[in-house]
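Worked example 3 (structure in, sequence out).
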């Protein structure tokens, strides 16, 4: 579980996060949504320790990040897996080498143990025949699955995903969403996803945090979002005719 308490973050005179408090739950897919400029990327980077808030606390299962010693922060980072927006695979490394990279960096495992773990996670993301391929030799959806495999190879407690469906077609996006949700539940991970994909909201939104102008405007799950009377939420989520029809059908049902 990750607790966020009254987080504030500014860049110069521009205050981006204005006292946000929320909880990201373990074993659930926690989504951060909002328009561009709402603060969702700054919040995600604050959770990752890339940005340092001026006020408030971020607490990882009872550990207040700002109170940790440098070596304790390093230890915490080894418990974090990250799926970047563009996958961020190393072009010159094979799929297997990309996935095994965190194990070489953060563990003392020998080659046999690394290979065993790499084989396991690649099988888990349904990429059993891609070990020797370079990223340029596989599709965007396969690259994203490699990125997920790399993110979970070191048994993370926390998984962060930045726009995991960016650049993917709708069918592949659904596959990636389902894979992230399955892994989250299977390994009881605290997963936080920064997304603008409304399909993700409707499919895997166990816990949804909606930001507007640096504030938490609304929080709920994928079922509750159908019934909210928060105008900012409905204007954002149901901006397309498709989702308006989905909501109407849901309410009638």
């Amino acid at each position: 579980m990750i607790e966020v308490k009254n987080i504030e973050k500014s860049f110069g005179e521009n205050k981006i996060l204005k006292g946000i408090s929320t909880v990201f739950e373990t074993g659930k897919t926690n989504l951060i949504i909002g328009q561009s400029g709402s603060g969702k990327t700054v919040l995600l980077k604050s959770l990752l320790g890339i940005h340092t808030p001026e006020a408030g606390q971020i607490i990882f299962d009872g550990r207040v990040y700002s109170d940790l010693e440098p070596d304790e922060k390093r230890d915490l980072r080894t418990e974090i897996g990250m799926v970047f927006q563009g996958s961020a695979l190393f072009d010159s490394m094979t799929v297997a080498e990309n996935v095994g990279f965190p194990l070489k960096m953060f563990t003392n495992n020998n080659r046999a143990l690394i290979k065993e773990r790499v084989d396991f996670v690649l099988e888990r993301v349904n990429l059993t025949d891609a070990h020797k391929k370079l990223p340029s030799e596989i599709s965007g959806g396969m690259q994203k699955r490699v990125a997920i495999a790399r993110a979970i190879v070191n048994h993370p407690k926390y998984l962060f995903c930045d726009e995991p469906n960016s650049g993917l077609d709708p069918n592949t996006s659904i596959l990636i969403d389902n894979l992230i949700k399955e892994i989250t539940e299977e390994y009881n991970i605290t997963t936080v996803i920064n997304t603008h994909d409304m399909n993700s909201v409707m499919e895997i939104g166990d816990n949804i945090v909606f930001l507007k102008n640096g504030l938490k405007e609304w929080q709920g799950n994928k079922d509750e979002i159908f019934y909210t009377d928060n105008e900012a939420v409905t204007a954002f989520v149901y901006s397309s005719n498709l989702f308006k029809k989905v909501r109407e059908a849901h309410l009638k049902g």
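Notes: The mean pLDDT is 90. Residues 38 and 212 are 5 Å apart (CA to CA).
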